[in-house]
Amino acid sequence: MNPKRSNQIATGTIFGLVVIVVLILIGLIGYILFNGVPNISWHFITAEAQAFSAGGGIRDQLFNSLYLLILTLLISFPIALGAGIYLSEYASDNWITNVIRTMIEVLSSLPSVVVGLFGYLLFVIKFGFGFSILAGAIALTFFNLPLLTRQIEESLRTVPNLQREAGMSLGLSSWKTVTGIILPAALPGIITGIILCAGRVFGEAAALIYTAGQSAPVVDYLNFNPLSPTSFLNPMRPAETLAVHIWKLNTEGVTPDAHQISSGASAVLIIVILIFNLGARALGSYTYRKMTATK
C-alpha cells in the first residue's frame, strides 16, 4: 500500500473516531437537557428540597455548590499560584523539580472516592471538622491543585522571555518582574484555568459524599454571621451539593416526583458546567484575538 493511501485511511479512521465521540457527547447532553429542561422553573430553582412530598426545589443544593466552589478556589488558588510561579520562574531542571511534577501528576490521577475517604478520615474524623463545607472544600482542593498549577505554569511559560529580559534591564528584581510584568501578561490564561477548574469542582460528587455530607439543613439566608449554626455562610455546617442531591434522588429518593427533580437538577448542573467551559473557550479566543490584533 502506498504512503498516500495509508495516510488517507489513517486520517479517515481518526476522523471517524472523533465523530463517534462527538455524537456520543451530543447525545448524552441532549438527552439530559431534553428530559430536564421542561422541569426547570423559577420555583424549582428557589424552593427548598422536600424529603417526602412533591414540589420540592434545589435552592439550598445550588447555593451549597456555589459556596463550596468559591471556598475551594480561595484555598487552592494561592497554593497553585505559588507552585506555578516557582515551577515556571525559579525551579531548576533537577530531580527535585521532577519529583514535584511527578507528585502533581499522581495527585491528578487519584480517584475521587479515594480522596473522599482520605478527607473523611483526616478532616471529618481526625481534625473534628465533621461533615462540613470546609472539609469538602479542602478535599476538593486536591482535585483543583494539579490542573490549576499546570495551567498557571503553562500560562507563565507562554510569556516571551523578552519581557523578562526587559524587566531585568530596567533593574527590577526577579520577584518584581514576575509580579509586575509576567503575571499581568499571563492573567488571561490563568483566568481561563480558574474557570475550567470551577466546572470540574462544581460537578464533583463522590468526594463530597464523605466530607460535605448528604444533608442540607434549613439555613437562614438573612443571617450573615458565619459563626452562627443557622447562617448560610457558616463553613462548618453540612452541605448537600447539587451533584450529591442528584445521586441521592436516583438511589434512595422517596418523593413522588424524584425522577422529575433529578432530571431538572441534572439539566441545571449540565447548563452551569457548559457555561463554565464555553466561557473559558470564549475568553481564550477573545484574548488570542486581542493579543494578535495588538501585535
Characteristic key phrases:
295 residues, mainly alpha, MetI-like fold, 0% strand
Structure in words:
With 295 residues, the protein is mainly α. The protein has one domain (40-294): MetI-like fold (Orthogonal Bundle), CATH 1.10.3720. Helix content is 73%, strand content 0%. The protein has eleven helices and no strands. It has helices at 3-36, 42-46, 59-90, 95-108, 112-126, 133-157, 161-169, 174-202, 206-209, 242-252, 258-294. Helix 1 packs across helix 11 and helix 8 (174-202) runs antiparallel to helix 11 (258-294). The longest helix is centred in the C-terminal third of the chain and has 37 residues, at 258-294. It is globular, with a radius of gyration of 23 Å. The termini are far apart. The model has no long low-confidence stretch (mean pLDDT 86).
Mean pLDDT: 86
CATH topology description: MetI-like fold
Individual helix count: 11
Domain tally: 1
CATH first level: which class?
A: Mainly Alpha
Tell me which oligomeric state these chains represent: single chain
Low-confidence stretches: none
Coarse structural class: mainly alpha
Order of helices and strands: HHHHHHHHHHH
Q: Span between N and C termini?
A: 46 Å
Number of strands: 0
Named CATH architecture: Orthogonal Bundle
- Percent strand equals under 5%
Shape: globular
- Main β-sheet: number of strands, strand sense, barrel status? none
Helix content: over 70%
Identify the CATH homologous superfamily.
MetI-like
